[in-house]
């Protein structure tokens, strides 16, 4: 009798544990997605020092039709690999009313080459056609939910998010099949809804400070 009671208690405990695990597994993807700015939500404003010696805000970088907020850095191979594509897109779409800003949120204590002085040199070497600013406190990266570099957040004229994710589907230019960011820019410039509003960004993880 006692053995049967113990067995029943064990089965009940296992069922409770399974239920808890099941809830945790189901909630994990939503919890991860919630870390990133939601489509339709307003992008956080900022006041950040740029490599040009000026302080930039969302209001000063925004375009008439929208703003591309790009989290990037100096050292990540993915950031470097996408620089020329981003420069080309900025040159093309600035004339169509879309502003661009590049934000480096990496902790230079973790990656010394991502320090501000190296940002200045990078901006000069590449002749960025957009402000390159330093998120020293990492508060803006956290507000947007930036996870990797590069990570794109495209805002409309009202500052609401209409696209987030990757530039395209392959770092190697000759392997690109889906130009997701360019498609979103096209739609925004034309005043049309963005058909694919979310893609999975890939690159180097943002180097958040260790507590």
Q: What is the gist of this entry?
A:
The chain has helices spanning 2-34, 58-61, 77-94, 116-126, 139-144, 180-190, and strands at 47-50, 55-57, 66-72, 98-104, 132-134, 148-149, 151-156, 161-165, 204-205.
Main sheet record: 7 strands, mixed
Strand arrangement, major sheet? 2-1-5-4-3-7-8
CATH class placement of the largest domain: Alpha Beta
CATH architecture name of the largest domain: 3-Layer(aba) Sandwich
Beta-strand percentage?
Answer: 15-25%
What structural class do the secondary elements suggest?
alpha+beta
Mean pLDDT: 87
User: Helix content range of the residues, please?
Assistant: 25-40%
Low-confidence stretches: 1-34
Task: Describe the overall structure.
The chain is an alpha+beta fold and 211 residues long. The protein folds into 2 domains: 1-34; 38-205, Glutaredoxin (3-Layer(aba) Sandwich), CATH 3.40.30. It contains 6 helices and 9 strands; from the N terminus they run αββαβαβαβαβββαβ. The chain has helices spanning 2-34, 58-61, 77-94, 116-126, 139-144, 180-190; strands at 47-50, 55-57, 66-72, 98-104, 132-134, 148-149, 151-156, 161-165, 204-205. Strands 2-1-5-4-3-7-8 form a 7-stranded mixed beta sheet. Strands 6-9 form a two-stranded antiparallel ribbon. The radius of gyration is 21 Å and the shape is globular. The protein starts with a helix and ends in a 6-residue tail after the last strand. The relative contact order is 0.18.
């Amino acid at each position: 009798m006692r053995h049967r009671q113990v067995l029943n208690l064990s089965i009940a405990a296992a069922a409770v544990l399974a239920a808890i695990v099941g809830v945790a597994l189901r909630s994990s993807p939503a919890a991860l997605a919630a870390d990133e700015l939601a489509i339709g939500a307003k992008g956080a404003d900022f006041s950040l020092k740029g490599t040009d010696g000026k302080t930039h805000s969302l209001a000063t970088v925004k375009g008439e039709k929208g703003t591309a907020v790009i989290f990037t850095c100096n050292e990540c191979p993915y950031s470097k690999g996408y620089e020329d594509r981003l420069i080309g897109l900025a040159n093309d779409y600035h004339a169509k009313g879309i502003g661009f800003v590049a934000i480096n949120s990496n902790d230079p204590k973790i990656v010394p080459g991502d320090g501000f002085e190296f940002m200045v040199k990078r901006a000069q070497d590449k002749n960025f056609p957009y402000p390159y600013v330093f998120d020293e406190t990492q508060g803006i990266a956290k507000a947007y939910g930036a996870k990797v570099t590069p990570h794109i957040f495209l805002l409309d004229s009202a500052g609401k998010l209409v696209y987030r994710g990757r530039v395209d589907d392959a770092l190697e230019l000759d392997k690109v099949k889906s130009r997701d960011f360019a498609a979103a820019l096209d739609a925004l410039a034309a005043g049309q809804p963005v058909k694919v509003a979310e893609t999975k960004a890939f690159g180097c993880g943002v180097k958040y400070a260790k507590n």
